């Protein structure tokens, strides 16, 4: 499989001041095609038969069983409103862990033992450099931690994935709301301060920081308006929804920022060519104070989001934005003051450097947004989760032929080809496939899921890339 797409700069995956509804959470976080022709184990785990058309998932507990064949369109999915966090470790059985993935989880005390055996060793060349074996042990420790997290994510029921995404979106977490709402309100105030500072001082460096700060609240506002447009959709005119309007709007904003930066670059070059005044520019203290206030505010938000960056993926995106803004504001005020106190050319030079940096950053963002719009592949953990859910959905599924997951704007389209017994009835085959479709569409960020049924895997690929008409 090719390397995972870098979508962490995509604006479509950034938080908005309040959770989207009805779609929970975002993640990045997309697939052209990933084929899984692996058959189920030759001796699959035994399951208690419920009915010929049983579509019960081995990954999600069901409330009761029936003697009749289930029909997916009439089955009420379990809506657990309790807390996702469990008070005790889950007990895995052959029903919810048919492939015994839990047996591969590395115990915590063994991981801690790896760290303890090497953390105090030195290489003999000083008190700072660690032994090479200590670095290898640390990488081994990270590997087992990532493996444990991946296994627990695969074994987590689909309902828990959905509820966890709702909580991450900020439905019940005050700290998350403070981080998102506080950043949004601060961005509005700081944009006004930056605009005042740039207009009053006429410093090109401060104009550059102002242009960057204006986009933060505007991007949140654009996401709010687009999310409302997505909810008010005419299914006859837009049968697949309007979620891609977010991505299209974000691409427009990216190019707007690039154009503004190009204008500042042109003005900086013109300042270099036509300057004929004194050796320094005029110093305007209120402008410097305004930018320093913006820097201090961003630094406070940076520290607050830093404490939550590993708990909420959306807060981590905010933390990265505040980190970038700290550098831009700090460098901008330094070059602006340098142009007033040292040499005049420091100001246009700072504006030139910052504009090039902003063009680079927003070009990366535009690339990520274009990938979402074109249909980039899902990341590997998402493909693994979809594959595992499909494999453990029902004992009637013999093999998984193909799994595809790719972006359609900020959300995912999923296609799964399953192999079933050719002697099964049409009703039982339909019920298993439809229940799997409903389950996959319950995952966060999945816009639509298509489940195709086959009876063998020896056929040629059913789809091909249309290189020419």
UniProtKB/TrEMBL annotation:
What are the transmembrane regions?
Answer: 178-198, 247-266, 286-307, 344-362
| One GO cellular component, as annotated | membrane
Which positions fall inside the Cation efflux protein transmembrane domain? Answer: 183-373
Spell out the Low complexity composition-biased ranges: 57-68
Task: Please verify whether the record's keywords include ATP-binding.
Answer: no
Grouped into one coarse class, the protein's main location is: membrane
Q: Which InterPro entries match?
A: Cation_efflux, Cation_efflux_CTD, Cation_efflux_CTD_sf, Cation_efflux_TM, Cation_efflux_TMD_sf, CDF_Transporter
Alphabetized, the UniProt keywords read: Membrane, Transmembrane, Transmembrane helix, Transport
Is Transport one of the keywords UniProt gives this record?
yes
Q: How does it sit in the membrane?
A: Multi-pass membrane protein
Q: Where is this region: Disordered?
A: 1-97
Q: Which GO terms describe its molecular function?
A: monoatomic cation transmembrane transporter activity
Single GO BP term: intracellular monoatomic cation homeostasis
Q: Where in the cell is it found?
A: Membrane
Q: Which residue intervals are annotated with compositional bias (Pro residues) in the record?
A: 16-25
Q: Where is the composition biased (Basic and acidic residues)?
A: 76-86
Q: What is this protein called?
A: Cation diffusion facilitator 1
Lineage of origin = Eukaryota, Fungi, Dikarya, Ascomycota, Pezizomycotina
